[in-house]
Specification:
This protein is mostly helical and 422 residues long. It is 72% helix and 0% strand. The chain has 16 helices and no strands.
Length: 422
C-alpha cells in the first residue's frame, strides 16, 4: 500500500468530526478500566473476612487475621500478573491486532474472576493458594486490558478530542473502585440482615457463621459481570483504523471500517504507485538508538512519574482500611460478627473514596483543558498541583518563602525542558 494513502487516511482520522461511535468507544473502553479497578482492588475489601474465616484461633480474644506473608501474597499477586500481562499482551497486540487481544484479555478476566470466587481447598493454605493462582491470571488479563483500552480509544479519536476521551476512559477507574465498596456494603448488609449471628465478644466461634464464606466469593465473582456485559460490544468493534493502516498495511480496509462505524463516507485508499511520502528516518523500533535519541527522555519522564504515582495510588487503595483503622477513622472496640464488621469497614471508607475519586475526575478534566499551560513557566506549577488533584490529595498551603522557592525550581525545570526540546 502506498504510503501516501496511509498519510491521507491518518489526516482524515485526525480531522474527523466527533461521532456517536466515539462516545460508544469511550463507554466500551471505559468499562475496561472500570472492571480493571474493581477486580484489582476488591480483594482489599475481603482480606479481614478471610482472616476471620480461615485463620481463627480458638480461645483468642481477637478475631483471626491473615498472616503477613499470606496477606501480602493475596493482595499483591494480581499486580505481579499485571506486570507480566502488560509486557505479553502489549507485544501480542502489535502482532495480531488490538481487537483480537481485547477479546482474549476479557475472557481471561471473566474466567479468573469466577475462579477466584470458587477457590476451594481442604485447608486454609490450599484455599489461599488457589485464590492466589486465579488472582495472578486475573492480573495477567488486566495487564493486557488496561493499556489496550487506552490505546484503542486513542487510535479511534480525532486530534481535537483525543485528550478528553482518554481522560474520560481513565476516570472510570474511580467509579470501579467506588462500585467495589458499594457492592461489598450491599452484600455484607444483606447477609447481616438475613443471617443473624452473635457478636464476637459474646460467641467468638458463632460470630463467623458458615454463610460468611459466601460473602467474599460473591464480591470477587461479581467482577466478571461488567466484563461479560461488554464482551459482545467489544467483539463487534472493528480493528482500529490506525492499526489496520499502519501496522497491517491495509489502508483500504481501514477506510471501509471508518465508513461503517463513523457513518461518513471515507474515500478508499488504493494503490497509487506514488513515491513514499513517509520519511524512512521516521521508521524505527522501540528499542532502537533512534527512538532513545528522540523519545528516550519523554519515556523516562512519563514512566518514572507514573511509577511514583502508582506507589501511592495502589498502596492507598489496597491498604485503605488498615490506614483508616490506624488513624482512627474506622471504629474500634467491640469485635462484632463478621458480616456487620465488613459493612462497617466499607461504610467508613466509601465517603472518603467518593470524595477522592470525584477530585480525581476533576483533575483529569483540568489537566486536559489547560494542557497548553505546559508551555508557560507557571504551567509547571499548575501541573504539579493537578497531579495531586488527580491522585485525590490536596496540597498544603505554602508560606511566601517556600512559594518563591517552588517558582524558582519550576522555572529551572521549564528552561531545562526547553533545552531538551530544542
Amino acid at each position: 500500500m502506498a504510503a501516501k494513502g496511509q498519510v491521507d487516511l491518518l489526516l482524515q482520522l485526525d480531522q474527523a468530526k466527533t461521532q456517536l461511535y466515539h462516545i460508544k468507544a469511550v463507554i466500551i473502553s471505559g468499562m475496561g478500566f472500570f472492571t480493571d479497578a474493581y477486580d484489582l482492588f476488591c480483594i482489599s475489601l475481603v482480606t479481614k473476612l478471610l482472616g476471620r474465616i480461615y485463620y481463627q484461633v480458638e480461645g483468642s480474644p481477637k478475631p483471626g487475621i491473615l498472616p503477613p506473608n499470606v496477606a501480602a501474597a493475596v493482595n499483591g499477586v494480581a499486580l505481579c500478573g499485571t506486570l507480566a500481562g502488560q509486557l505479553f499482551f502489549g507485544w501480542l497486540g502489535d502482532k495480531i491486532g488490538r481487537k483480537s487481544v481485547y477479546g482474549i484479555t476479557l475472557m481471561l478476566m471473566i474466567i479468573s474472576s469466577i475462579g477466584s470466587g470458587l477457590s476451594f481447598g481442604s485447608s486454609p493454605k490450599a484455599v489461599m493458594a488457589t485464590l492466589c493462582f486465579f488472582r495472578f491470571w486475573l492480573g495477567f488479563g488486566i495487564g493486557g486490558d488496561y493499556p489496550l483500552s487506552a490505546t484503542i480509544m486513542a487510535e479511534y479519536s480525532n486530534k481535537k478530542t483525543r485528550g478528553a476521551f482518554i481522560a474520560a476512559v481513565f476516570a472510570m477507574q474511580g467509579f470501579g473502585i467506588l462500585a467495589g465498596g458499594i457492592v461489598a456494603m450491599a452484600v455484607s448488609a444483606t447477609f447481616h440482615a438475613v443471617y443473624k449471628t452473635p457478636a464476637y465478644s459474646v460467641d467468638p466461634l458463632g460470630s463467623t457463621g458458615p454463610q460468611a464464606d459466601y460473602v467474599w466469593r460473591i464480591i470477587l465473582m461479581l467482577g466478571a459481570l461488567p466484563a461479560a456485559l461488554t464482551y459482545y460490544s467489544r467483539m463487534k468493534m472493528p480493528e482500529t483504523p490506525r492499526y489496520t493502516a499502519l501496522v497491517a498495511k491495509n489502508a483500504e480496509k481501514a477506510s471501509q471500517d471508518m465508513s461503517k462505524v463513523m457513518g461518513v463516507e471515507v474515500e478508499s485508499q488504493e494503490e497509487t504507485g506514488e513515491e513514499k511520502v513517509i520519511d524512512k528516518r521516521n521508521s524505527f523500533g522501540l528499542l532502537s538508538r533512534e527512538f532513545l535519541r528522540r523519545h528516550g527522555l519523554h519515556l523516562l519522564g512519563t514512566a518514572s512519574t507514573w511509577f511514583l504515582l502508582d506507589i501511592a495510588y495502589y498502596s492507598q487503595n489496597l491498604f485503605q482500611k488498615d490506614i483508616f483503622s490506624a488513624v482512627g477513622w474506622l471504629p474500634r472496640g467491640q469485635y462484632d460478627e463478621c458480616n456487620g464488621r465488613t459493612f462497617q469497614d466499607r461504610q467508613g471508607s466509601v465517603p472518603y473514596s467518593t470524595l477522592r475519586h470525584s477530585s480525581r475526575i476533576l483533575g483529569h478534566s483540568f489537566s486536559y483543558r489547560s494542557h497548553r499551560s505546559l508551555h508557560d513557566p507557571a504551567g509547571w506549577i499548575f501541573l504539579h498541583d493537578r497531579v495531586h488533584v488527580c491522585s485525590g490529595h490536596s496540597l498544603p498551603p505554602l508560606d511566601p518563602e517556600r512559594k518563591q522557592h517552588r517558582i524558582h525550581s519550576h522555572l529551572w525545570t521549564h528552561l531545562l525542558f526547553r533545552k531538551f526540546r530544542a
